[in-house]
Write a structure and sequence with these properties.
mainly alpha; 15 helices; 4 strands; globular; structural constituent of ribosome; 28S ribosomal protein S22, mitochondrial; Ribosomal_mS22
Length: 339
């Protein structure tokens, strides 16, 4: 009586190869599917549009001093090396530094939340009760990515189904452990602990760790990053993320949620008129139905461009008008001093 079920079980392993193509197609599709509403999906799917990426990179304001600053990562620092160089050699080294800086500023992807996996492949009542626990089949073929690797579960009731996200994460981590990633998420990602770290303004630390621990479409990753972004916006602590790889996604989040008023206030208070123009331009790209979209950006008339947004689309019009007036008064005083 035991032979037939055993043969049936091992025959199921052959399903892995037959389902490989189906798995690849399904996992590729998840990059464009969203568990959220249509509007949110439409906006987030535009993150990699060239025009939007260009604005996000400009807003990041690369600063080599900050990018290559010393950080407490537990790594041993190499002693500095001093060289005599010609002008040509110095220029080559500067280009190399710019390339390394661009690599360090590579933005984490912004994706819609993934859909839950709930796909039954087959039902085989003859296998019901054969095992006391589920059997996991994992395709460990070299070269497969964690996204399209086929992982299926044979349940004790005979059902064969695709593994859910938690099961996929655990099996991928068992066979192909990612450096720095824990099997169980660190307790600091619990909401109460995370809020305490946000109060201490350890934003970059939280975001870096989230990038290591989670995939960018994981609902937990989205919860963590959005909590951090909202905390930064509330504290107007944008400078802490400028010239880091997280500033672009921060701005994308604020614009997506129509919450750029605070950052515009900070831009005006810190004499970043160009940044304010870029932020509003990004707002127009992602929200083409906005009233201020009709105002064209003309070189030399940036103030009018900003005023149009303040008067028609801002949620904190009074605060922005006050900040703009203060900016104008400061500029007038500076001009008078120069004369």
């Amino acid at each position: 009586m035991m032979k037939t079920p055993l043969i049936t079980v091992f025959k199921q392993i052959g399903i892995l190869s037959r389902l490989n193509q189906l798995s690849i197609t399904g996992n590729r599709r998840r990059l464009s599917d969203s568990g959220a509403g249509g509007v949110d999906h439409d906006i987030k799917s535009r993150f990699y549009e060239p025009e939007i990426l260009t604005l996000l990179k400009k807003l990041t304001r690369p600063d080599l001093q900050k990018i290559f600053r010393k950080r407490k990562l537990g790594l041993r620092l190499e002693p500095p090396e001093y060289k005599f160089m010609t002008t040509e050699q110095l220029e080559q080294e500067r280009k190399k530094a710019d390339a390394r800086a661009a690599e360090k500023l590579q933005m984490p992807p912004v994706l819609p939340p993934r859909k839950e996996i709930d796909e039954v492949i087959s039902e085989d009542p003859n296998l019901a009760g054969f095992e006391r626990s589920n059997i996991v089949f994992t395709d460990i073929t070299f070269g497969k990515s964690d996204v399209n690797r086929l992982i299926v579960i044979r349940e004790t009731n005979g059902r064969l189904r695709k593994a859910n996200w938690d099961e996929r994460f655990r099996m991928n981590q068992v066979y192909f452990p990612a450096e720095g990633r824990k099997m169980n998420p660190p307790s600091l990602f619990k909401q109460e602990n995370m809020l305490r770290l946000c109060e201490e303004q350890r934003y970059e630390f939280l975001l870096d760790l989230a990038c290591i621990q989670f995939e960018p479409d994981d609902p937990e990753y989205l919860r963590i990053t959005e909590t951090v972004y909202d905390s930064i916006d509330e504290a107007q602590a944008y400078e802490l993320l400028r010239s880091t790889r997280h500033y672009g996604p921060l701005m994308f989040h604020l614009v997506t949620n129509r919450s750029i008023d605070n950052v515009l206030v900070e831009n005006l208070q810190t004499d970043r008129l160009e940044d304010a123009v870029w932020a509003i331009s990004l707002y127009h790209l992602l929200h083409p139905e906005s009233k201020s979209k009709s105002t064209e950006l003309i070189p030399g008339e940036e103030l009018q461009f900003i005023k149009s947004y303040i008067e028609t689309d801002s949620k904190k019009r009074g605060l922005l008008e006050m900040s703009l007036q203060t900016y104008l008064n400061t500029r007038e005083v500076q001009v008078q001093r120069q004369q």
